[in-house]
């Protein structure tokens, strides 16, 4: 797992349960605006497991770095937080680093105790689709 993401996981795992949700919501603001080339979600994949409209795109550069693009409405802060965590922890990582992220990432962070299983399932689906796109690139 990339060092940036490992640090985020450790930060959440060691945090008191009553502040985990508050910490998570801080990551909702880490989602960068989409470039115009993704207007209308062109070339992006929807994640239907999410309760809210969520779109993503992973681009692998010739230097083997992964660029991440997410679109999720601001009215869905928990789902945006998943994207923000992945963006902060994985943007610019190598393909091998992205593919090394364990599928139980959110459980390791302790989020399963703080948010509903349905939301954890949506976050896991985001990670799985992102990794599939990286494998296919």
Automatic annotation (TrEMBL):
InterPro entries: Fe-S_metab-assoc_dom
Source domain of life: Bacteria
Transmembrane segments: none
Homology family: Belongs to the SufE family.
One matching Pfam family: SufE
PANTHER family cross-referenced by the UniProt entry: SUFE-LIKE PROTEIN 2, CHLOROPLASTIC, SULFUR ACCEPTOR PROTEIN CSDE
Name used for this protein in its record: SufE family protein
Residue intervals of the Fe-S metabolism associated domain: 10-133
């Amino acid at each position: 797992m990339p060092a940036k993401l490992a640090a985020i996981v450790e930060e959440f795992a060691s945090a008191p349960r009553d502040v985990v949700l508050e910490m998570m919501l801080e990551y909702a603001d880490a989602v960068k605006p989409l470039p115009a080339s993704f207007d209308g979600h062109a070339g992006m994949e929807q994640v239907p497991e999410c309760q809210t409209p969520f779109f993503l795109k992973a681009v692998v550069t010739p230097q083997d770095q992964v660029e991440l693009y997410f679109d999720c409405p601001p009215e869905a802060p928990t789902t945006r937080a998943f994207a923000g965590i992945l963006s902060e922890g994985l943007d610019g990582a190598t393909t091998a680093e992205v593919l090394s992220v364990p599928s139980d990432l959110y459980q390791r962070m302790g989020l399963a105790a703080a948010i509903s299983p349905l939301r954890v399932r949506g976050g896991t689906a985001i990670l799985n689709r992102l990794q599939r796109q990286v494998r296919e690139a």
